[in-house]
UniProtKB/TrEMBL annotation:
UniProt subcellular location: Cell envelope
Lineage: Bacteria, Pseudomonadati, Pseudomonadota, Alphaproteobacteria, Hyphomicrobiales
Similarity comment: family membership: Belongs to the bacterial solute-binding protein 2 family.
Annotated Gene Ontology cellular component terms: cell envelope
First and last residue of the signal peptide: 1-23
Record Pfam families: Peripla_BP_4
Alphabetically ordered keywords of this record: Signal
Residues covered by the Periplasmic binding protein domain: 26-287
Listed name of the protein: Substrate-binding domain-containing protein
Molecular-function annotations in GO: carbohydrate binding
Organism annotation: Endobacterium cereale
Length: 314
């Protein structure tokens, strides 16, 4: 009986060891934790990790600001050093994060990139890229602008972090489309560093210096919020065409009260959900698509209460 008990204990310990070995930490590292956009990404990631039913764990972190690029690099390197099972990363800079992602690749840690692309040539270091087609999203914002202001006059572009992968595609798509399809004069872009207060001050100055401005585009969540607040404070709500980007509560209210004609909304929840889902597949030795489009919706007062908008607003 004693021998049987010892054998059963040994089997249990071995099984526990095997189970522990198969469990892995998925490290989700985003551009900043101080944004409802990235908090909505976390909600999606939470939903996906719940489907693992405890087989794997997840951590979520990001710098205090999107401009704190060195902090994000350190977070990725720390994740590699503690031998996490997989990494979901939204890189704040296309070049600066490449060495850290390469270290993960060398350590055989699968990486899925979301929102912003890494520099050309770095695609061999990660398994999948999930994002809005930012260039297409910028073009949709530009088309919405032209539809309302026409093809002549002056518009301003309020951007965020120069050189960020999403910014290059989004603002590049917007300005290229405007130049190709209209004679609109573009003022800017101005870079808020994704700081709402900075965007507010910049927009206040732009409005004061350009009394003939017909339209203005705020290219990400904190920038668009600051832009919207500046427009209201200047008494310009409804007097020029303002188009935002992303879909938190502030921006939804701006659409409803007419401060914004429209806001272009990404599937932020889907980035977290589908990103972690892809990593779970990779940990289970399954294949995933190299590129996954998480979509975008142009939200206006006409469709803000419809399912197509409710599915992406947060």
């Amino acid at each position: 009986m004693r021998k049987l008990t010892i054998a059963l204990m040994a089997s249990a310990i071995a099984l526990a060891g095997a189970t522990g070995a198969s469990a892995a930490e998925i490290a989700v590292i985003v551009k900043t934790v101080n944004s409802t956009f990235w908090q909505n990404v976390q909600k999606g990631a939470d939903a996906a990790i719940a489907t693992a039913k405890g087989k794997h764990t997840m951590t979520f972190q990001g710098p205090a600001a999107e401009s704190a690029i060195a902090d994000e690099v350190n977070m990725v390197e720390n994740a590699v050093n503690r031998k996490v099972g997989a990494i979901l990363l939204a890189p704040s800079d296309p070049d600066a994060l490449v060495p850290a992602v390469k270290k993960a690749w060398e350590a055989r840690i699968p990486v899925v990139i979301i929102d912003s692309q890494l520099a050309d040539g770095a695609d061999k270091y990660y398994q999948s890229f999930l994002a809005t087609d930012n260039r297409k999203a910028g073009e949709l914002a530009a088309q919405a602008m032209i539809d309302k202001v026409g093809t002549t006059g002056k518009i301003a572009v309020m951007s965020y972090v120069a050189g960020a992968g999403s910014e290059i595609g989004r603002v590049g798509g917007f300005t290229d489309y405007i130049k190709k399809n209209s004679k609109l004069e573009i003022v800017g872009p101005y870079y808020s560093q994704s700081q709402m207060a900075t965007a507010l001050n910049q927009t206040t100055d732009v409005l004061a210096a350009n009394s003939d401005l017909k339209g203005i585009f705020g290219a990400n969540e904190p920038t668009a919020i600051g832009m919207g607040r500046a427009i209201k404070q200047a008494g310009k709500a409804g007097k020029l065409v303002a188009i935002g980007f992303d879909g938190n509560q502030d921006l939804q209210e701006f659409v409803k009260d007419g401060t914004l004609h429209a806001t272009v909304v990404q599937g932020s929840f889907q980035m977290g959900d589908k990103g972690v889902e892809a990593l779970l597949k990779l940990l289970d030795k399954q294949k995933v698509e190299k590129t996954i489009d998480t979509g975008v919706v142009v939200v206006t007062k006409d469709n803000i209460d419809k399912p197509e908008a409710k599915n992406v607003l947060y």
